[in-house]
Amino acid sequence: MLSRMLNFSIHVIQGMLIFSIHIYSWPTSLLKLINNWMCNFVWAGDPDAQKITILINEAAVLKLCWDVLTSSSQWASFCPARFLRHDSHKYIKSFIWPGINNKMSLVKLHSSRIIGYGKSMKFWSNKWLSEIIADALNLPAEVRFSLKATVSDF
Phi, psi at residue 96, to the nearest 5°? Predict the structure, then answer.
């Protein structure tokens, strides 16, 4: 239903524009701006609203960051192992990793985890205290990579 409404409004407004184009010469930038306003109005109810697709993309990338940090799935362990170089903050070229990597500090800053029994909580690299222990001790990346202990081990 919503797609029909969007399609109808686009056709009506574009029809009016096509009629006026026969009389006036409109700049392409203005036509693109009007098209953006129409889509924003239909999807968000406000022509000046941020595009809903941008917000959905941001939410999806934040979810991917959370999965990489907390999940034990193969995908979550594959991404950092494949794209992140352990000797620096540089990464191997990828279409996915830059988006995840850019939001990683935001997710780490605003998240914490419930310890429970501590069997899945990594002692050195998870934020189970006010800060990550490996960060507080300034441990080098080579050392961090080899630390596998969980909170329940202590």
Answer: -90, -45
Six-digit token string for 72? 């034990």
Q: Can you tell me the distance from the alpha carbon of 50 to that of 46, in angstroms, rounded to the nearest whole number?
A: 9
Tokens of 69: 């940090």
Cα–Cα dist 140/143, whole Å:
5
The pTM assigned to this predicted structure is 0.46
As a whole number of angstroms, the longest Cα–Cα distance in the chain is 79
- Structural contact between residues 61 and 99, judged by C-beta atoms closer than 8 angstroms: yes
Tens digit of pLDDT for each residue in 65-103?
888 877 778 877 777 777 766 555 556 677 777 778 788
Domain ranges of the chain: 2-49, 50-111, 112-154
Q: Are 10 and 37 in contact (CB under 8 A)?
A: no
